Amino acid sequence: MKLINRRLYFDYNATAPLSESVINYLRNGAFVFGNPSSIYTEGREARKIISETFDYLRLLFRIPNEGHEVFFHSGATEAINSLVKGMAMYASSQGQKFHFFYSAIDHSSVVKQALHLPLLGHEAHAISVDSNGEIDIEVVIQKIKQQKGLKLFNFTQVNNETGVVWPLDLAIRVKHETDCFVHVDAVQTPGKIVNWDNPHYELDSYTFSAHKFGAMKGVGFTILSQDMPWIPMHMGGGQQKGLRAGTENTHGIYSIKLALEDLTRTFDAQAVKMHKDTLEASLEKMLGAAGQITAKRAGHRNLNTINITFNHEIKIELLIAALDLAGLSVSSGPACSMGMPVASRVLLEMGFTERMAKNSLRISIGPRSSAEEMARAWEIFSTVLPKYLDRP
Questions:
Q1: Residue pLDDT, tens place only, 129-156
Q2: Which of these, 6, 3, 2, lies nearest to 326 by C-alpha position?
Q3: 380 backbone dihedrals φ, ψ, rounded to 5°
Q4: What CATH code would you report for 20-265?
Q5: How confident is the model at residue 336 (pLDDT cuts 50, 70, 90)?
Q6: Which parts of 27-131 are beta strand (E)?
């Protein structure tokens, strides 16, 4: 977490500040520029730092030497589109029906696949959640078994708005009890849950976006089982074994290694949880009957996220602006358009009223937050927030 001129950034679920090593790399400016597919010196220099990142990911995530690949892309939105549509294309090539299963509170890049798949002759199936943002895995398994053909289930390990965690054991049950492939949206895991760097390779794929953990924007990576039946969407020069053609984003890819090295060196899960829990308890006491901590009764929550829903209209955009003026950056769960609050699709699916879904505040602290920064944050909240609470 950065504390610059006493400003605090508490929106790590949206994006993370560049890590120190990435900043130093960019500041140094000794950038390789060769095409990593070229065999001359400049190309080999570019290939070297891509290979270093590839080897580091295999070591960090304990990726099996055989049976799994890693490919780089522009981020999770691209990867999810590529995997889902790529499996649909494969199913079409085999004369099969493709069925895509997803949660109604998944990221928009997942949910909006339901708009395209019917155009390709395939089907998407939404799965509802309860008021804590949790799925009934028995219902998931039953829905999957009812369909015939090639199947893919998107499993979002951590929800970006609420911080609710779905244990991988649930996804493994789906894998064992159905004939469905499972993709894990792991975008919100690095530095936000314990054992984020320990995937279960019984599942078929994991996708990450680099800017969520301090690397550059516009780059990410997917760990993929070679058994995954799909046709890569980016066809061209055959880079990355044909999994994603196109000249690689060399500096973006190298920033992944640098940022993850910083994260693993400094990450203290117990400290992050303590800071979050302390702030949450203080906020809950201040709120009283005016609001609540979203999904507080969920079975598992991540280390860094506090989502507050208010019981009355508070003009959330004005509250966020007031906190910003006081030196604290936080967000509303849903996106805002031209300053007008939009009801959170996630909260609506969890059963909140439209009024409450428009009045949510998301606080997501960083993996290197300090006691000084948390104390300053509480000072800001305790000064600004009471002015927006509807007291009797």
A1: 999 999 999 999 999 999 999 999 999 9
A2: 6
A3: -70, -50
A4: 3.40.640.10
A5: low
A6: 68-73, 98-103, 123-127
Residue ranges covered by each domain of the chain: 3-18+267-388, 20-265
CA 32 from centroid of its chain's CA atoms: 30
Taking 60 as the threshold, does the pLDDT of residue 4 lie above it? no
- Better pLDDT: 314 or 286: 286
Handedness of CA 145, 232, 59, 56 (dihedral sign): negative
pLDDT, averaged across the chain: 94
Residues 6 or more apart from 183 whose CB is under 8 A from it? 80, 83, 152, 153, 154, 155, 203, 204, 205, 206, 207
Domain at 3-18+267-388, CATH class: alpha beta
- What span, in angstroms and rounded, lies between the C-alpha atoms of 62 and 377? 37
Residue in 188, 207, 364 with CA at minimum distance from that of residue 280: 364
The β-bridge partners of 340 are 337
How many other CB atoms are found less than 10 A from the CB of residue 337? 8
Which of the 8 DSSP states describes residue 361?
A: E
Kindly report the number of other CB atoms within 10 A of residue 227's CB atom.
9
DSSP assignment of 132-195 equals TS---HHHHHHHHHT--SEEEEEEESB-TTT-BB--HHHHHHHHHHSS-EEEEE-TT-TTTSTT
Q: 56: Cβ–Cβ under 8 A, 6 or more apart, which residues?
A: 257, 260, 261
- Measure Cα distances from 79 to 86, 106, 310, 345, 369 in Å: 10, 15, 35, 22, 30
C-alpha neighbours within 13 Å on the C-beta side of residue 41: 0
Buried b (16+ CB within 10 A) or exposed e, 20-53: ebbeebeeeeeebebbbeeeeeebebbbebbeeb
Q: For residues 306 and 38, what is the distance between their CA atoms, to the nearest angstrom? A: 48
Crossing angle of helices 316-325 and 371-384, rounded to 10°: 130
269-275 contact pairs (CB < 8 A, 24+): 269/193, 269/194, 269/303, 271/369, 272/191, 272/192, 272/303, 272/304, 272/365, 272/367, 272/369, 273/303, 275/365, 275/369, 275/371, 275/374
